[in-house]
Please model this.
Amino acid sequence: MANTPAETIYVLNGPNLDSLGTSEPEANGHADIADVERLCTATAGQFGLKADCRQSSRESQLIDFIHEADANKAAGIVINAGGYSRTSIALQDALARLKIPAVEVQVSNIHAGESFRHQSFIAKSAVATLTGFGIDGYRLAINGLAARIGAKAKA
Model:
């Protein structure tokens, strides 16, 4: 049986996350985007959910993905907007209009770096933010969304 949109969590990754694992491994670790997608698929599957993983370096495409998730009545969104977290009011506005929950993930601890990295517009419209857990933040975000929507782990 195919998953319905309400059983789907959109996992959205922004600019430069396609180079995860090779870019700044001391801060971001050695896992790559394929590892993130496998982790998200496996974690969502534990709850009978599907992870729809997408990456784009284009702000407008990320906004389109957010609108699509909302229109499809997805279970929720996990978003790592990368550098757009600190600059995109447009992404914040798209998330603020959601009727579904969104969780922000930052692989590295944004508060450990330069002061301009401490701000996140995305956090203002998310139900939660996870920062500094490496790619495990995605697992934690999906677990949190599953709890929020009442999804139980499958035996």
About this structure: The first helix runs from residue 25 to 28.
